[in-house]
């Protein structure tokens, strides 16, 4: 059974689909794409079925990432099939841990920027939705910076699971 990671933000149209696309590319580059399943969702269902925000799509394409996506809402029942749930900010972290059916499920929830050793104390990826393109570029920078550390952690977990 593949290792499973789900990125979660508010509406699943900006930050989490961006993180999903970047991390999927990192997995492919590392040769782990067949061993790890990547997904994304939102804490709310306002945008279910919608594509990613056009600004997210533009930033991803401008940086060479794929961007096919349909928004959906995270469900507590998913915890049983997920190995890691990656929250994009503290609010998502609290909400997801509150949804977790067990303490073990709650321990699967981590902040994305906790995997970036240069992030400092502010581990939130700010929501770019109400701003301009600069916010989406900043979001991508943060996602890319954290993806290397997350990749190392996932690689270790996949190796441990296989042993």
Automatic annotation (TrEMBL):
UniProt-listed Enzyme Commission number(s): 3.1.3.48
GO MF, any single term: protein tyrosine phosphatase activity
Pfam families on file: LMWPc
Keywords from the named record: Hydrolase, Protein phosphatase
Classification via SMART domains: LMWPc (SM00226)
Entries under Gene3D superfamilies matching the protein: 3.40.50.2300
InterPro entries found in the cross-reference section: LMW_PTPase, Ptyr_pPase, Ptyr_pPase_sf, Tyr_phospatase_low_mol_wt
Reactions listed under catalytic activity: O-phospho-L-tyrosyl-[protein] + H2O = L-tyrosyl-[protein] + phosphate
Keyword Hydrolase found: yes
Domain of life where this protein originates: Bacteria
Residue ranges of every copy of the Phosphotyrosine protein phosphatase I domain listed in the record: 3-153
Catalytic residues of the enzyme: 9, 15, 127
Signal peptide limits: none
Top EC category: hydrolase
UniProt key word Magnesium: no
Family listed: Belongs to the low molecular weight phosphotyrosine protein phosphatase family.
Name of the protein this chain belongs to: protein-tyrosine-phosphatase
Species classification: Bacteria, Bacillati, Actinomycetota, Actinomycetes, Kitasatosporales
């Amino acid at each position: 059974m593949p290792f499973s990671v789900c990125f979660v933000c508010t509406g699943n149209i900006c930050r989490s689909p961006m993180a999903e696309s970047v991390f999927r590319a990192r997995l492919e580059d590392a040769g782990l794409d067949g061993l790890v399943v990547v997904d994304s969702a939102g804490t709310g269902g306002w945008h279910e079925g919608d594509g990613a925000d056009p600004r997210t799509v533009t930033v991803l394409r401008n940086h060479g990432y794929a961007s096919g996506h349909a928004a959906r809402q995270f469900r507590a029942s998913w915890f049983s099939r997920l190995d890691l749930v990656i929250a994009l900010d503290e609010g998502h972290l609290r909400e997801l841990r509150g949804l977790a059916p067990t303490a073990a499920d709650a321990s699967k929830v981590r902040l994305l920027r906790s995997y970036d050793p240069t992030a400092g104390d502010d581990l939130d990826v700010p929501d770019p939705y109400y701003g301009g393109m600069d916010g989406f570029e900043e979001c991508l920078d943060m996602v890319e910076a954290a993806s290397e550390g997350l990749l190392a952690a996932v690689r270790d977990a996949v190796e441990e699971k296989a042993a």
